[in-house]
Amino acid sequence: MTRSSAPSHRHILLASLTGTAVEFYDFYIYATAAALVFGPLFFPASSPTAQLLLSYASFGLAFVARPVGAVAFGHFGDRVGRKSTLVVSLMLMGGSTVAIAFLPTYAQAGWIAPLLLCMARLGQGLGLGGEWGGAALLAVENAPPGRRNTWGMFPPLGAPVGFILANGFFLILGLVLTDAQFRAWGWRLPFLASAILVVLGLWVRLRLTETPDFTEAKQSESLPRVPIATLLQNHGRALLAGTGGVIACFAIFYLATAFALGYGTTTLGYPREAFLGVQLVAILFLALGVVVSSVMADRRGATAMLGLGFGGCALVGLAMGPMLGSGSLALVFLWLAVALFVMGFAYGPLGGWLPALFPAGVRYTGVSMTFNLGGIIGGALAPIAAQTLTERGGLNWVGAYLVAAGLLSLGGLALMRGRGVAQP
After folding, report:
1. How many CB atoms lie within 10 A of CB 202?
2. Which of 103, 159, 188, 346 has the most crowded Cβ, counting Cβ within 10 A?
3. What is the H or E stretch that residue 231 is in?
4. Can you give the pLDDT at residue 47?
């Protein structure tokens, strides 16, 4: 398949953006529901804190499933092709999300309710394991010379798009429904609405063709029989570096969104709609950071922009306690906006940097594995660790978690220093 017969640039970028927007919408409506309602609805416990921890634990299940999905979808993405793998991953991810809308609660079904919730969450995680990496390759492997970081920003832009859709939906529900109505049935509507986004994503992706890089690798017979084995045997340093490089963006995102929402509406006592509105505006700074850092990465190199993001992660960690716990909603907003802008620098250039770490024959597996392994360290543990640290030592300890995440990501960059991957 030649470039002349490939879909238009606009269609390719829309396809890479749509899938990750659905991914983050699905993931974040679960994170929001876990912070707001899943504890008392699905988990029996005498302590509200214990219920919230169990709810966050179910949230973390998807991160455990994501590397499994990364291996499975990475195998077919590197052996069969990017297009068909992306279609299947989207269907599994979206189907699991829609299923949550129909689950019984603990009061209705007893222990079966949290079991079904965890199964649906695992299904989400498996689908998500192959989503981001494939979307990044779709953009980067079709990019014109010198534009790979700019094109690679479209999958990361799915994060603010999905967040705005998810947060906006919950905000509207909070304004039009009573608290009793929201807890009884309103929380189900965002999960049900995911079906619309999945259909849109499938419509876009079914019109795609294979990427030039995959087609070339297939024609030259350079596709390994077992991509994960080749990856582990020959590309261990890149795998470790990429995993480390992902930690900071996940840590910032879930501490500034899911954890901050739960902490702000319970411990700090802010109204749910007010805090959701503040987050909805702050997320625009994430989009701005992604665009600025990705465009600059094509001029100055992805490593330089990522370094700014990872260093900034440590700085916003130091400011977390004084600002988020200040008692002033204006200072809370300022911290959220700065943290999410910094996340844009830690996240946007990953779309071009991670694919540059691996050859085409193991690229889908490599990018998916690094993104999802880093997600376990930076994302799955973040809400649980933050809740525990808050109970024992306050917000300053949670900020220290962010500092550690930034340092780990800087270590990942250092592993590939001088190896020619800063500018894909």
Report:
1. 18
2. 346
3. helix 227-234
4. 65
> How confident is the prediction for the chain on average, in pLDDT?
86
Nearest to 94 by CA among 228, 7, 11, 198: 198
Evaluate whether 291 touches 422 at the Cβ level (below 8 Å).
no
7-10 contacts at long range (C-beta below 8 A, 24 or more positions apart): 7/207, 7/208, 7/209, 9/142
Structure tokens at 275: 């805090």
Radius of gyration of the CA atoms of the chain, in A? 20
What pTM was estimated for this model as a whole? Answer: 0.83
pLDDT single digits (tens) 314-349: 999 999 989 988 888 999 999 999 999 999 999 999
Per-residue pLDDT tens digits for 77-130: 898 888 888 888 888 988 899 999 999 988 888 888 888 888 888 888 888 888
Tens-digit pLDDT profile for residues 400-409: 999 999 999 9
From the list 121, 148, 158, the residue with the least C-alpha distance to 25 is 158
- Distance CA(372)–CA(375), nearest Å, equals 5
Closest CA to 351 of 167, 197, 151, 159: 151
Best CA proximity match to 171, nearest among 296, 326, 280: 280
Cβ atoms within 10 Å, residue 74: 28
